[in-house]
Amino acid sequence: MSLALDKLFDYDNFRTFLQDYFVEQKRLRAVFSHRFFAAKAGFSSSSYCLNVIRGRFNLTPKSVDKMAQAMELDNRQKAYFAALVQYNQAKRTEEREFAWNQILQIRTQNEFAHISNNQKASK
Fold it and tell me: Mind listing the pLDDT tens digit for each residue in 3-21?
């Protein structure tokens, strides 16, 4: 698993996460680029992801799904990524608070699963 994906639950800004993910993927694979990822995710614009990272575009629920699939996120990672997007793009306080509560809940579940897996490994 990539370091950026491994640290996904530490992020509170999806744009920062995407930037780190892209930098890491480019370092790991010379072929990786914004154009490469856009094609893998099924976006018609090769600059779409770059514009999202730079804050020029927001993500829609459909584009969140496409990105999650292209990054091969598991269900928990996808839910967290979607909550981050909702949190960062929320226009109303209630929406932002709801998304933040989802983030905290997923982080708690993730920490519990991590501890459980470590306990299993130590037996």
Answer: 777 899 999 999 999 999 9
Pair of tokens at residue 80: 């967290």
What is the C-alpha to C-alpha distance for residues 122 and 55, in angstroms, rounded to an integer?
Answer: 44
- 43: its two tokens: 């976006």
pTM of the model: 0.87
Burial class (CB in 10 A: 0-12, 13-18, 19+), 115: exposed
Cβ-proximal residues to 99 (8 Å cutoff; 6+ apart), any chain: 83, 84, 86, 87, 90
Tally the C-alpha atoms within 13 A of residue 47's C-alpha that lie toward its C-beta: 5
